[in-house]
Write a sequence for this structure.
C-alpha cells in the first residue's frame, strides 16, 4: 500500500535538509507507541536507524537502512528501507522528499508498506496515516 503526505514549510529546501537530524527524528515520534532510538547514524546512503517500539506488553525492534540519497537544484531526498521490522510489517520503504517550492519547501513523506496479510494492509493504512499526520504541525513549527 502507498501513503503520501505533504507539508508546506516556510524555509528553503536546503535549510530543511540541514534540520533533518536526530533531534528532529525524536520530535517526530508520536506518543504511542513510545520509541527509543537505539542507533541513529543519519540520513545519508548506508546510514542505519534502529528503534525499539514499546507496546507496553511487548517491545519490537525496527531497523532501517538508508539505501539512497540524492540532491538536485529542485529536491533533496533519501530512502529508508526496513531490514528488521516489527511482526506486523513485512515490507517498508519510506521516501523522504524535500522539494523546492519557490523560496519555501514541501516535505513529502511517501511510504510504501505491506503487512503479512492483505486484509491487515487496509487495517493498518489509517493507523499509519495518523502516525504521519502527527508530523505535519511539528514540521511547520520547526521550519517556520
Amino acid at each position: 500500500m502507498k501513503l503520501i503526505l505533504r507539508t508546506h514549510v516556510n524555509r528553503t529546501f536546503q535549510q530543511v535538509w540541514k534540520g533533518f537530524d536526530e533531534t528532529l527524528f525524536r520530535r517526530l515520534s508520536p506518543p504511542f507507541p513510545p520509541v527509543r532510538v537505539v542507533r541513529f547514524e543519519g540520513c545519508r546512503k548506508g546510514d542505519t536507524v534502529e528503534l525499539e517500539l514499546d507496546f507496553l506488553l511487548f517491545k519490537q525492534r525496527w531497523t532501517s537502512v538508508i539505501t539512497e540519497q540524492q540532491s538536485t537544484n529542485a529536491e533533496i531526498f533519501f530512502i529508508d528501507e526496513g531490514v528488521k521490522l516489527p511482526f506486523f510489517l513485512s515490507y517498508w520503504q519510506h521516501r523522504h522528499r524535500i522539494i523546492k517550492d519557490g523560496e519555501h519547501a514541501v516535505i513529502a513523506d511517501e511510504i510504501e508498506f505491506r503487512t503479512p496479510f492483505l486484509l491487515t494492509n487496509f487495517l493498518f493504512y489509517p493507523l499509519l496515516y495518523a502516525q504521519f499526520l502527527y508530523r505535519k504541525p511539528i514540521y511547520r513549527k520547526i521550519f517556520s
Summary: The beta strands are 2-9, 35-40, 48-54, 59-71, 75-84, 91-101, 104-114. Residues 118-133 form the longest helix (16 residues). The mean pLDDT is 96. The helical segments are 13-18, 22-28, 118-133, 135-142.
